[in-house]
Amino acid sequence: MLEAAADGANELVFPRHPSLSPDSSQVAFSHQGDIWVAAVSDGRARRLTAHDAYDGTPLWSPDGSKLAFLSTRFGNNDVFVVAVEGGAPQRVTWHSEHDQVHGWLDHDRLLLSRTGTRMYSRRGRGAWVGYLDGRTPTMLVDTAMLRPAATAGGGVIAYERGHGDPRRRGYRGSASSALWLWDAASGEHHALTDFDGNDLNPMWSPTANHVYFTSDRECVGNEDGRELGLWRVDVANGAV
Hints:
- With 240 residues, this protein is mainly β.
- Helices cover 0% and strands 45% of the residues.
- The strands form five sheets. The chain has a five-stranded antiparallel sheet with strand order 1-5-4-3-2, with no helix packed on it.
- A hairpin with a 5-residue loop joins strand 6 and strand 7.
């Protein structure tokens, strides 16, 4: 593992995909196509992966001992897991389409999706469960969903539903993205937001009472609805 000090002697320029550890003591990120971890206290970074392919989007396990990440080692995006203390990465997905990892359901299961081989796909391919014991990923829910985010254990999934391009700022209409919830116990889906613009990137609060998201809703400083801001919705009553 290569280390880089925080004194500028081996400065890491343009790190990407920052991910804070569960105890907030470390930050994982991608730099020049490899996965790194840095201590928050002194900024000293160490490299966990070293490969000619691109490794990115690290996500911490609940106990902070492992990182899931994406890699193009076999041509398309596959999901891998590596121990934070170092070692050989473990491959989790083997499908020929592009896999995505969205989080951990528990210590040995991952929330995944498949986006197809197209560079840009807005429909999504449902949510899947990836296993660290070598089993083939299994489908969790078969519906068009984007950027799924699960509560601990996967009891409820928040996701985007829409067909428009979120890069089209200020769009209002039927193709915009709204946030929906899927309940694993009942199998039911229901809308969480009904804004006619774009609500994107759901993320659960620690208590699972709220979902944080980005939106181009009009507000002070965004009167024309062309910038994304950070919002919060109450899961119980839908209040934003």
